[in-house]
Amino acid sequence: MQALTNKAKVVERKPMTVWERLYLPAIAQGMSITFGHIFKKRPTINYPEKQRPFSPVFRGLHVLNRDEEGRERCTACGLCAVACPAEAITMEAAERLPGEEKLYREEKYAAKYEINMLRCIFCGLCEEACPKDAIYLSETFAPSNYTRKGFIYGKDELLIPDPKTQPEEYAKARGNK
What we know:
The protein is α+β, with helices and mostly antiparallel strands and about 180 residues long.
């Protein structure tokens, strides 16, 4: 493609003054900025001892809820996996055995439920899509890990404790909500 005009832009270089050649004004300006930052309050927080305040709408780790009788609320409808824009949730549904149908309200359950925290963007759409309030985002940080597999949380890590067998842990987990 050709230019519309034949004019060339002429760039002129002004000769540098003695002060500019010595770079002293630039060095003095940089040092003044540096010394100005030295005497400011440090933004660093010593994490384990002190924690910074979070927004009331902070979204942390995912948690799978249980009802008051200790049953899993998730019915493997798959709406959370469909609503997830990052495709971080994978699940496999299974049907209950004939003897188990009386113990549980729903005939389907999530045999496999995994969330890949490396893909999750903590948007909360899975929480909004769930009709049974089975999943919510707690106020807990996602812990660090050294392997990719350590960031894939299965159903056993996501489920809150059973209120019948572990009442203290259940009360503590429900207090995070």
